[in-house]
Amino acid sequence: MPRLTAAGSAYPAPMLDVTQWFGSETSLAQLRGQVVMIEAFQMLCPGCISYGLPQAQRVHKLFPDVAVLGLHTVFEHHEVTGPAALKVFLDEFGIFFPVGVDRHDGQRMPVTMRAYELQGTPSTLLVDRAGNLRFTHLGAVPELELGAMLGELRAEPAPA
Amino acid sequence: MPRLTAAGSAYPAPMLDVTQWFGSETSLAQLRGQVVMIEAFQMLCPGCISYGLPQAQRVHKLFPDVAVLGLHTVFEHHEVTGPAALKVFLDEFGIFFPVGVDRHDGQRMPVTMRAYELQGTPSTLLVDRAGNLRFTHLGAVPELELGAMLGELRAEPAPA
Amino acid sequence: MPRLTAAGSAYPAPMLDVTQWFGSETSLAQLRGQVVMIEAFQMLCPGCISYGLPQAQRVHKLFPDVAVLGLHTVFEHHEVTGPAALKVFLDEFGIFFPVGVDRHDGQRMPVTMRAYELQGTPSTLLVDRAGNLRFTHLGAVPELELGAMLGELRAEPAPA
Amino acid sequence: MPRLTAAGSAYPAPMLDVTQWFGSETSLAQLRGQVVMIEAFQMLCPGCISYGLPQAQRVHKLFPDVAVLGLHTVFEHHEVTGPAALKVFLDEFGIFFPVGVDRHDGQRMPVTMRAYELQGTPSTLLVDRAGNLRFTHLGAVPELELGAMLGELRAEPAPA
C-alpha cells in the first residue's frame, strides 16, 4: 500500500524547472501552505491518458483546497510533443489545472524529472503544506489510498 | 461533495443494538480510540452488493487500523433474509469483517437503523476515535472522498 | 475464444425440467424457431450477480427476437434459496425474463443441470432455431463474442 | 439500437483515398470477400482513445477473419497530428492493424471522410463481403451490438 513519508523524514520538494506554463504560471514557493499534487506525464503515454490525468482531474474538481499541477516530463518523442502539440492536447482533453513543461538541458530525461528521480510516467507526487515531498509513485494509485493521503496532508497544520 | 461533520458539532454514535454477530462480537464502546466505518446493508439489496459492500471490503483490506463493521438493517423481506440466509451470503461473498444483525422490535425499520435515522441501504457511517458520528450517507460514496474522510479521521488524535 | 458448435454436429438441447416458473411458463418446444439464451444461475452466487445475470438482462433488452430464460440451478444452500427467496431476488434485481426452477431428485445437482452437464454457475447456453444446443460456457463470456454468436444464430434460417 | 442496413439497400463503400499507410498498404478492393471494420479516428480525440480504438483492437484480436482498418481523418489540429506524430501514437498505443491517412484537398474535412459523410470521430464503419457499406455510426457502439452485426455479416456468403 502506498504511504506518505513521515513529515519528520521528508525533504523539500525540488523546484519545478519549467520553460513554459499553460494555464497560470505558478511555483511551489507560491503554493507554500497548500497541499500540492503534481502529475508528471507525457501527452502520448497511454497510462497518463487512461488513468493518471483523469485522476488528477478528479482531485482538481473534488478538492478546491489542493493545488493540482501537471508537469510535462517528455523523455521520448520530443519532436511531436512540443508546446504546440501539448496545447492542443490540453484543450482536447479538458485539462484545466496549470501545466508546466519540464526543461531540457541535452540529457534524455528533463531537469525536474531528474531532480525528483522519477522513473517514468505517469508519476504522482504529493507535497505538504511546508513544501516537503511526501509521496512519489510511478503508475496507478488506488483512489481510496490517494484520498487517504490527501486527507492526512490536508489535516496537517500550515507552517507558521 | 460528502463531508465530515466538524468534530465540535458531532454527537455520540448511537449504540449498535444487535441480536447476533457474525465474525467476532464487538461494540462501539470496545472500539473507542479507533476510526470505525459501518456499512448498513440488506443482503438482497442490489446497490449493497454492487458497490456498498465491495467498498467496505476494500477499506477493510487497505486500512488495518480502521474497524469496518457491517450492520444488517433488514426492513423488507425478513422472511428470506434471516440469520441462516445471511450466514450463507457472508460466506459466498467473502465478507470477512464482523457483521451484526440489527434488532427488530415490531416496527418496520429495525432499532439501530432508526437510532441513526437511516433512510435506506446501503448507508455508510463514519465514527471518529472519540466515538462521535461524523458522516452518514445513503448511496454511493466516491472512493477519493471516502479516502479523504478516512485520512482526516485517522489523523485526529485519540481521546485521552 | 468461445465458439458455436457447428450446426451439423450439435445435438438437441435437453428439456428444461422445471418445477416452477416465475414470469410466464415456457419450454424449449414452444420456442422452436427462435434463438434461445439460457442463463443458469444461483441467487447467492457472486459471479451470477456481478456479470452473468446483468449480461442476460442486456441481451433480453437489446434482442427482442432472442428468447432469454433464467434457470435456477441450485446445488448448494437450498434451505435459503427456495422459491420464496428467489421471488424476492428476481423482484429486487429487476429480472424480467422467465425464470424456471430446476427440479431436484435427491442428487446434489438438479436434473436439468445434469442433463446439460453443467459444471457450475453462472453458465450460459445458446440454443438455435432448430432446438439444438450450440454453446455452453461456465463463467464470463466477452460481450463481443456473445454478440457475434447471437448474430450468427439469428442469421440462420428457421427450420421448415 | 444500431442496426445493419439490409443487404439489398446498401451501396458500395467508397474507395479509401489514403496518402500513406502505416502497417501494410491495403484497399477495399483487395479485401473483397472479407468483412471489413473501419475505425475513423483522430489521434488527439479523447473518445477515439478511450473507446473507439480499444474496441477496434479487441475486434482485431478476436476475429481473425475480419479485416480491421484505421482511417486517420484529421479535420482539426493538422499541424500537430501529421504522419510523424501519428507514427509515434500508433507505436505507443499498440495499434497493430493497418492505418491509412485520409487525403486532404484543401477543404476542412478530408476526402474519404466526406465520401462517407462522417460527422466526426470516432466513427465505426462496417463493409460486407460484397464491398457494400452496411453500417456507419458516430460515437460508442455497445459491444453486444457490434458483435451481433459482425456475426451477421460473417454469416453472409461471400460473393461469387
TrEMBL record, chains A, B, C, D:
User: What's the domain of life for this entry?
Assistant: Bacteria
**Gene3D superfamilies named in the record:** Glutaredoxin
Every Thioredoxin domain range? 5-155
Name-wise, this protein is Redoxin domain-containing protein
Source organism of this protein record:
Microbacterium kribbense
- Kindly list the organism's lineage: Bacteria, Bacillati, Actinomycetota, Actinomycetes, Micrococcales
